[in-house]
Amino acid sequence: MNDIFKDIIGHAIQKRKLSVLLEKKILPSTILFAGPEGIGKWKMAVRMAMYLHCGFPNPPCLSCSDCLRIEEGLHPDSVSIHPNENGIIPIGKEGSGEPGTVRWLIERLSMKSLSGITTALVDGIDRMRPEAQNALLKTIEEPSKGTYIFLIAGSVATVLPTIISRCFTLKFDFLHDEEVLQAIETMASQASELPLIAQAAGGSMANAVLLRDEGALEDIKNAMADIKEQINTGFSAMEHISRIEKKIGAEKLLDILLNIYRKNMKSVLLTGGIKGIIGDYFGEILFERVDTTLAVIKTIIQVRMELKRNINIVSALRGLLYEKTVSEQI
Ligand SMILES: [Zn+2]
Question: What's the pTM value of the predicted model, to 2 decimals?
C-alpha cells in the first residue's frame, strides 16, 4: 500500500497499525488518537479521512476536490469539530443545531451521506464535559454503516471510560528531538538555531513552530532570567514572563520552560555541569545545583496543573519559587 503518512514525521508504529487496518479493510468505526498536543495526531486523522473519501488510485492524492475540502473542513460528508474560544466543545442546546456543538455533530452523523462514507474528526474529546461525551456515546456505540469517527485527545484522563471502551485506541508519544529537527529543517529559519529549537520544543511540533518565530528564543531566555532573579533576590517583577504569557499563552510558556529545565537537570546529573546545546545558549541563567533546578521544575509543574483555575501565573510562580527555594536557604 501507498504510504499515506509519508510526509508526516515520526510515529512509525502508529502509522503501521493504521495502514494495516486500512489495507485489510478492518478499520474500526471509532479510533481514539491519544497523546500529547502538537505532535501530529490531528494531521494523521485528517489523512485517514482523506484516504476514505479520495476517489483516486493510491489514495489520498492530496490534491483532488475531496482531499482539499477535507483539509479545509468543508467536505459535505466529513465533519470536523474544534474547541471554542474557552477551550471546550460545548454540548449545545437540544434541537438548536448550533454548529460546533456536540448535538450538531450527532445530528450531522445521523444524516445520510452522499458518497456512502461519512467521517467525523473530533479535535478534543477530552475538551467535552462528561454530559457532552455521554451524549456522543450512543453515536459511537451504534455507528451508521460507512461512518468513521476519529477522536483526538491530549489526555485520556478526562475521557469517559465508556467512550474509551468503545474505541480502538492509538497511543502517541512526544516526537524525538531529531524528528522535530528533521521537521523544522524544511521550514525557513536561521539554520544555526534549529538544533536548539528542537531541544527546547521537547518533542512538540507546536512548540517548535512557536520557537521558530523571530525573537522567541530571546523571549524564553528573558523569562528564565526573571526566574533566576526571583530565586537569587527573592523578588522579581517578572515583566518578561507577563509579556510572553500574553504572546504565546501560559501553557506553552510553562511547557517550554519545563523542557529546558529538565534538560538542564539532566546535564547537571550526567555531566556535573551545564553542557550541551541548551547550556551553550542559556548558559548562566540555568542552574548548577540539582536541588534548585528540581525546585524550579516542581514549581512549573504545579503552576501548570493549576492553570485551569485561572490563576495569575506571575504570582503563582513567585509564591511557589519563594517557598521552595529562598525559604530553604534561610
Ligand atoms: Zn484525493
Answer: 0.80
